[in-house]
TrEMBL record:
Stated name of the protein: DUF7870 domain-containing protein
InterPro entries for this protein: DUF7870 (IPR057192), SAM-dependent_MTases_sf (IPR029063)
Domain of life of the source: Eukaryota
Keyword entries, A-Z: Membrane, Transmembrane, Transmembrane helix
A Pfam family the protein falls into: DUF7870
Segments traversing the membrane: 14-36
Keyword Transmembrane among record annotations: yes
Annotated source species: Cajanus cajan
Residue ranges of domain DUF7870 in the record: 219-318, 357-454
Gene3D superfamilies: Vaccinia Virus protein VP39
Length: 454
């Protein structure tokens, strides 16, 4: 006969085994549920997530553990949102679209689609990351062929110079599979003109594609002043108060760099110090500032200014030697130079008025801009070039550099009424106010947010 202690031990073992078996049964049932229904909101092979899904998580110790946090991740979401808004503007995407983002490791593009109203969106990647991303790739995914009407693969965005020919996977027993991607460089238009002459703005042809969302922003800009002002020097103060700055309309935090280019900067206090530094809304961003000024009388001042890069050249349509003309009044016996109020000429010619000519170096402003900034940067340009705008603007448009400028403040020079001499127009410029208005109108029609500067 077994002692009482042995009986109690056997009973305890039986109870432990029964409890372990029950736990195993429960765990197996839970595992089956996760396998069949995990990563999905019903038992079907695919469903889109509800409109009010929330990416908020708790218990995370750092940004590295949480892929849905951090400034860089959020900046990417905002960048993709801007791209997709352009697709909506041109009609290739709508809020009712069912969208698939291919090969998206962290789902910024998926979240961007949902935030702009395309809620039926999902991403695929070899490593799933619910709720935004499920397992799959561009050729193998768990959805039927007709599940989507909008597919997005951001890889080709890196190579807008090329078109995709084919892809194939190369398997090697001695190494990991290699994905071969064959792309063909697009041919440039052989009739493309690189030389820019002075032409009316109405004859300009846009050589780059400005996103649709920028065109929508232009519609919200302040109205152009259609009637020629009798006192343009008074209009400036009034017009500055009416300007609708781009940074007061949209968020720019997702941009890589922030650049301000003052073309025809004159002295530091003319516009950089008095206007851009103090009045332009920057959304707490630090801007790189470039001052382009050919007049040597201002160069020494900029050398003492921190945070400003001086380009001591004249913005022009090509790299060549120019003549910088300082206008003088022949009616006065004492001739005084008006520094910063000159204009440039490509060749030395005689004219009906007297002037001092200084030889300066001109450079291709459009090519400089294309080599200095990208479409991922936020670029503001102020241009006051004493009539040269009728050369520079066509060049910017022909080369496509105009598309790199997010906001343009342009002073257009014409035969305005003289402040000193009532009833007399300036003989310095031959363009009319009507031609200037045509230039502003054409730029806005292109989708350029341009403001009248005086």
């Amino acid at each position: 006969m077994e002692p009482p202690a042995a009986k109690h031990g056997s009973l305890r073992n039986i109870l432990v085994r029964l409890f372990s078996f029950a736990v195993l049964i429960f765990a197996a049932r839970f595992a089956i549920i996760v396998t069949v229904r995990g990563g999905s909101c019903d038992s079907a092979d695919f469903c889109f997530f509800s409109d009010n899904f929330n990416l908020s998580t708790s218990g995370r110790s750092s940004d590295a553990e949480d892929p849905f946090s951090g400034k860089n991740w959020r900046r990417s979401v905002e960048h993709y949102a801007a791209v997709f808004q352009d697709f909506i503007a041109d009609g290739s995407l709508s809020p009712n679209s069912r969208a698939l983002c291919i090969d998206t490791p962290s789902g910024e593009d998926v979240l961007a689609l949902k935030e702009i109203g395309v809620v039926d969106s999902v991403g695929i990647f070899k490593k799933p990351s619910p709720p935004l991303i499920v397992h799959g790739d561009g050729r193998r995914h768990p959805f039927s062929a007709d599940s989507f009407d909008f597919d997005f693969d951001s890889f080709l965005e890196l190579f807008n110079c090329c078109e995709l020919i084919r892809t194939r996977e190369i398997n090697d027993v001695d190494s990991s599979p290699v994905l071969e991607i064959l792309m063909k460089k697009k041919n440039k238009n052989p009739n493309f003109e690189t030389e820019t002459e002075t032409v009316d703005s109405g004859n300009l042809v846009n050589k780059c594609s400005i996103p649709g969302y920028k065109r929508e922003i232009v519609k919200n800009a302040e109205a152009l002043i259609e009637e020629e002002p009798s006192k343009p020097w008074v209009i400036l103060k009034k017009n500055v108060k009416n300007i609708k700055y781009l940074t007061s309309l949209v968020d720019i935090s997702f941009k890589n760099r922030y650049v301000y280019v003052d073309v025809g900067a004159r002295n530091y206090g003319s516009s950089i110090g008095s206007w851009f530094r103090k009045q332009y809304p920057k959304q707490n961003r630090t801007f790189e500032v470039y001052a382009i000024e050919a007049d040597k009388s201002f160069h020494e001042e900029y050398r003492a200014k921190k945070g400003v890069t001086l380009l001591p050249f004249a913005a022009w349509v090509r790299n060549e030697t120019l003549f910088f003309e300082i206008t003088r009044d022949p009616s006065k016996k004492v001739m005084m130079k008006r520094s910063g109020m000159g204009r440039i000429n490509p060749v030395q010619t005689s004219s009906s008025h007297m002037g001092d000519l200084d030889k300066i170096q001109g450079y291709d402003f459009a090519e400089w801009l294309k080599s200095s900034v990208t479409s991922r940067d936020f670029v503001v340009v102020k241009m006051d070039v004493e009539g040269t705008e009728f050369h520079l603007i066509p060049r910017l448009i022909q080369t496509g550099a105009i598309c790199l400028i997010d906001e343009l403040f342009l002073e257009c020079h014409y035969n305005r009424w003289q402040r000193c001499c009532p009833g007399q127009r300036s003989a310095k410029y031959h363009k009319t106010y009507s031609q200037c208005l045509d230039l502003f109108t054409s730029l806005r029609n292109f989708g350029v947010l341009v403001h009248q500067w005086w």
